[in-house]
Each structure stands twice: as C-alpha cells, then as structure tokens.
Amino acid sequence: MASKTSKGSKVQGEGDYEASRRYRKRTQEYLENNDVEKAALRAKPTSRSEAEALAAAEAAGKKRAKGEDPALRRRSAPRVEPSTRAKTARH
Question: How many domains does the chain have?
C-alpha cells in the first residue's frame, strides 16, 4: 500500500516513483554519453593485492547474502507460479 511522506511523494516498497524515474533517466544518459567499456577498464584492479582485496570483499558480501538469484542460472524456462488455491480449500 502506498503511503505519503512528509514531502507528499507517493512511496511504494523501498523507494518512490520519482526517484525511480530519476535513476533510470541518469542511467540512460550515462550509457548514451560515456564509453562504458573504457570506464570498466579504468575500474579494473591495478595490482594483484587490489584484486585480492576486491575478491575478499565480494566473498564477505556473498557470505551474508541469502543466495544467488535462481533467475541468473535459468536459461529460458518459464517461471511457474504456485497455485493460489490452498490444498485445504473446500469447493
């Protein structure tokens, strides 16, 4: 259920619609105006110790995670939604 914040924006879940629109707009602008491959190369670790530190940080983050999203491993199998009818429902 949507609620109102002190500024009057509609909030749903973990964010509001306006923030979501701003994020999508800035992301699209970045992709259109920047060389993403070059930025990725600049972000690459510059030393073995830096690469190890990043790997350790990633492992620490994954340790706290509930698990990897199964959708990442799924090829093209459609998602099957569970039945909404309870097994104990009477007809």
Answer: 1
